[in-house]
Amino acid sequence: MTKTFAVIGDPIDHSLSPNIHNAAFNALGMDCTYIAYRIPKGELKEGIESLRQIKISGFNVTIPHKIEMMRYIDELSEECKTIGAINTVTNENGRLIGHNTDMDGFLEPIKKRNIAIKNEDVLLLGAGGAARAIAAGFAKEGAHKITIANRTKEKGKELAKFAASLGIESNETSLDEAGQNAGKYKFVVNATSVGLKNELSPISTNAINSQNVVYDIIYMPMNTDFIAQSKKKSAIVIYGYEMLLGQACLAFEIWHKVKAPYDAMRKVLLGGF
Q1: Known catalytic residues?
Q2: What sections of 9-128 are H helices per DSSP?
Q3: Residue 207, C-beta contacts closer than 8 angstroms, at least 6 positions apart
């Protein structure tokens, strides 16, 4: 009996998750398949019902459903409770159990490089579901302070309040000011969708320097304008595909209870570019 897995979101046609997971199944000789399934905003409830109908074994959740998914789940992991967003679901005999691998998936490439987070300052662009997971990750690792810059001030304030509730000093700033002060932060992270369509960097990179760790969670294109400009300034750069890979490996391990074949997954992912 082939087990089916999926990623749900909208848009979904650009998703590289099917390639990554199917490569892992191939590498380990598993009788499983992974598909991309488009569920438009406002149709999540019906979409989840149809996934239940086909007895889906598990699925990933991406934009715009990560937060709303909380309403349709039977049980939540501690990470989900903290972050208030879901990106991985297991179906255990009809019971949907929510997980969030974004937080540890985000941290993984930083740890791989042995870059210390403790007591460092963070500039975080964006205030959506992924930004919440990232803020929670920095709080968990003992960062000193997090500054949120977002287009809508209200959402930025909300995320700063959330970060403060996790015990990390936090404040909110404008994207203009963020650009002017970017050089003062150890980590500068783009968790907005600006760059997906090859737009210019969400902030000015003039202040970026070799002391910055610049991390863009957008993985297509791999070299966003934000990354390209920061490279010119000799910043340490972390690519979005590394977070994608980190969270995919964790999701794989939640579903299959075996170690994910990282190299096979990385190879097909980079081949996808």
Answers
A1: 66
A2: 17-28, 44-53, 78-83, 102-112
A3: 179, 180, 181, 182, 183, 184
- Helices 102-112 and 240-256 cross at an angle (nearest 10°) of 120
- The partner residues of 149 in beta bridges, in order of sequence, read 125, 173
Cα 19 from chain centre: 17
CA gap 13, 98 in Å, rounded: 23
- Which 8-state DSSP code applies to residue 146? E
The confidence band for 273, taking pLDDT boundaries of 50, 70 and 90, is: low
103-238: which CATH topology? Answer: Rossmann fold (3.40.50)
Could you report the per-residue pLDDT of 154-175, keeping only the tens digit for each? Answer: 999 999 999 999 999 999 999 9
Q: What is the reported pTM? A: 0.91
On the question of a common fold for 3-100+243-271 and 103-238, the answer reads: yes
What backbone torsions phi and psi does residue 215 show, to the nearest 5 degrees?
-130, 120
Phi, psi at 125, each rounded to 5°: -95, 125
Gyration radius from the chain CA atoms: 18
